[in-house]
Prior knowledge:
Oligomer: heterodimer
Helix content of chain B: over 70%
Strand content of chain A: under 5%
Structural class of chain A: mainly alpha
Number of helices of chain A: 12
Distance between the termini of chain A: 24 Å
Number of strands of chain B: 0
Distance between the termini of chain B: 10 Å
Radius of gyration of chain B: 24 Å
Shape of chain A: elongated
Radius of gyration of chain A: 22 Å
Strand content of chain B: under 5%
Number of strands of chain A: 0
Helix content of chain A: over 70%
Largest sheet of chain A: none
Number of helices of chain B: 14
Amino acid sequence: MRRWHIGRWIRRHPAGAASAAVLALVLLAAAGADALSPHDPYAQDYDALMRAPGGPYLLGTDYLGRDILSRTLHGGRTSLLISGVAIAAGTVTGTVIGLLSGFYGGWLDGVVQRVVDVVQALPSIILALALMAILGPRTENVVAAIAAIVVPGLARIVRSTVLQLRERQFVEAAQALGASDGRVLRQHILPNTLAPIIVVATNALSGAILIEASLGFLGLGAQPPTPSWGNMLSEEARRYFEQAPWMALPPGLALSLTVLAVNFLGDALRDTLDPRLRRTAA
Amino acid sequence: MRPFLVRRLILGGAALLGLSLLAFGLIRVIPGDTVMAQLAESGNVSDLAAARAALGLDRPFAVQYATWLGAALRGDLGTSFWSKRPVIEDLLAALPVSVELALLAMLLAMAVALPLGAAAAARRGGTTDLLARLLSFGGLSVPHFWIATLVLLYGSIWFRWVPPLGYVSPRESLGQNLEQFAIPAAILGLHLSARSLRLVRSSLLEALQEDYIRTAWAKGLRGTRVMWGHAFRNALIPILTLLGGQFTYLLSGSVILEDIFSLSGVGRYIVEAVTHRDYPAVQGAILFTGLVVIGVNLVVDLAYAWIDPRIRYQ
C-alpha cells in the first residue's frame, strides 16, 4: 500500500481533515460521557420539569426533569456504540462472505448473490423494522438488525474485487508456489480489498447511525430510560416539544453533525483510496 | 434483446421467490414459543391457539410455506391481527398515498437536482458547485425525520399550523390534498435531490469530457446548446436509470415521514404492523414492498435497454 503524508492529505482534503477532527471530538464526548456530564442522565428533578436552558441545566431539562446535556452526551454513547458494533460485525461478516463467494464461485456464489438480490430489494429501514418486529425492541437486536443490513452491500463489493484479483498474476504465483487457499486469501487477496472495504464501511456507518436513530425515533430502538439520540426525539418526547422546544434541538444537531462528519470523511477517504473514482466523484 | 429480457425476468423471478422465503421465514427464525410470548405481550391477540393456527406454526415448514405461497399468489396475504381485515385490502388502500408522496417528491427532486447539477458541472469548482456540494452533503446528513419534527414544531409555535388529519383524495379536494402532501413531499424531495444532485453532476461531467462535446464547441455552438443539446441528452440515460434506482430509497424515506404526518400510506402501515406485532401484516407488507421494488427495477432495466441499444448486447 501507498504510504500517506498526513500533512499533504490534510492540505488536499481540508473538509475530510476537519471532519476527522469533529468525529474525534464526538467520539471523545461519547466515551467520556460519564466524566463530562454535569448531571446524572437518569436523575429526575421534579422541581425543574421542562426548565428552559440556562442556570444549572445548560441545555434545559426534559419532561421528567432530566438534564438534556447529560442525556445528549450519554445518548451519543448509546447511538454510536450500537452503530459502531453493528458496522464492525456487519463488515467482518460481509467481508468473509464476499471473500469466499468471490474466490470459490460456484453454487456458493450463486446462493450468496441471490440472497443479496433479495435483501437489497427491500428498503433498509423496512428490513430493519421487520427484524425488530420479530426480534423485539432490545438494544442487542438493534445491533443485529443493522449488522444484517450492512452485510449484503459489503459482500457484493468484496466479491467483485476478489473476482478481479483472482485472475491477477501475484495470486497465480502464490498458488503455483503451493500456498493454501487460506494463505492466498489472507496474505494476498484480503490486503488488496481493504481500500473498497474502508470506503463502503464508512458509507455504511453514516447509514447505520441514521437507521439507529430512525428506530429510536419510532420507539423501536434502545428502550427508555436509556437515552439515545433517536429516542430523545421519540413520540413520547415529541408530545412535550411544544411546551419545551429546546428538547428537540440538541439530539438532532448532534446527530446531523456526526453524520455530516462521517459523510465528508468517507468522501475524502474514497478520493484517497480509490483513484479510479477521483476523476468524476465530487 | 431477447436473451437479455429472459435473463432479467429469470433473475427477477428468483428474487421474488427468495423474497417470499424471507417474508415467510422471518418469523420462524426464532422459536415459535417466543413468537407466541411476544404476541401475548402485545395484547392484541386473545386466542393464542387460533393465532398459532393462523400463522401456521402448528404444521411442518414446507407445508406452511406452500400453503402461504399458494394463497399469496392468489392475492390472499392473510388477515391482520390488528385491523381484522385482509392484509391485501389494507395495503391496496394505502398504496395511492405512498405513490402520490413518492411522485411529488420525485418531481420536486428533479426540479432542484437537474438545473443545479448542470450548473455545478458547467462551472466545476465554482461557487455554484460548492453550494451544490454543501446542499447535497447537508441533505444526506440531516435526518429528514428531525427536519419534519422541527417543521411541525415551529409551524405550530410560529404559525399555528398543524397538518390536516385524515387522507383526502385529490378527486375529493385537490387543494386539501396538496395541503396534506406539500410539506412531507418537500422534505422528502429535498432529501432525494441531495442524492440525485451528485449523480446528475457526475454524469454530466463524464459526458462533457467526450469528443463530440469538443466538436460542438469547435463548431462554435453556444454554451447552453452544448450543455442541454449535447451533454445533457447523452447524460440523460445514466441519470434516468440511477433515478429508477432511487426508488427503494424513496420508499425508505416515506416510511417515517408518513408516520409523522399521519399519511396512511404503506410506510405507516408497516410501522403500525411492527408496533402491534401484527405478523401477517408485516409479512404481507414485506412481500408487497419487495414486489414493487423488484418490479420498478425490472421496468427501469428494460427501459434502459430500450433507450440504449449498447446494453442489449452485453
